[in-house]
Amino acid sequence: MKTCTRFADMKAGYERDIAFLRGHAARHEGSTAAKASTRHAWGVKQNMARALAKHFERCPLCR
After folding, report:
1. What integer pLDDT is reported at residue 16 of this predicted model?
2. Among the listed residues 26, 21, 15, 23, the one whose alpha carbon sits nearest the alpha carbon of residue 40
3. Whole-angstrom distance, CA of residue 15 vs CA of residue 45
4. Helix, strand, coil proportions of the chain in percent (round to 5)?
5. 42: closest CA among 53, 34, 30?
6. CA distance 48 to 18
7. Is 56 a residue whose pLDDT tops 90?
8. DSSP state of 48
9. Which of 2, 11, 21, 49 would disulfide-bridge 41, Cβ 3.0–4.6 Å?
């Protein structure tokens, strides 16, 4: 699948956020903040999928 640079930049940004949230959850395992961070990471992953799918539909370079 060939994609444009904007797609790659968007994906990298989301993946960076997800890694940060998961790392925080791992460092503070068992705490309320870790549980919230895990939920936020899950939500960011869904948002990433939604945003990338929408971009892929509309971008003439990615089609």
Report:
1. 98
2. 21
3. 8
4. 80, 0, 20
5. 34
6. 10
7. yes
8. H
9. 21
In angstroms, the CA 54 to CA 35 distance is 29
Contact 50, 14 (CB under 8 A): no
Q: Are 61 and 1 in contact (CB under 8 A)?
A: no
Per residue in 8-40, is it b (16+ CB within 10 Å) or e — as a string? eebeeebeebbeebbebbeeeeeeeebeebbeb
Contact 14, 44 (CB under 8 A): yes
Burial class (CB in 10 A: 0-12, 13-18, 19+), 58: exposed
Between CA 38 and CA 34 the distance in angstroms is: 6
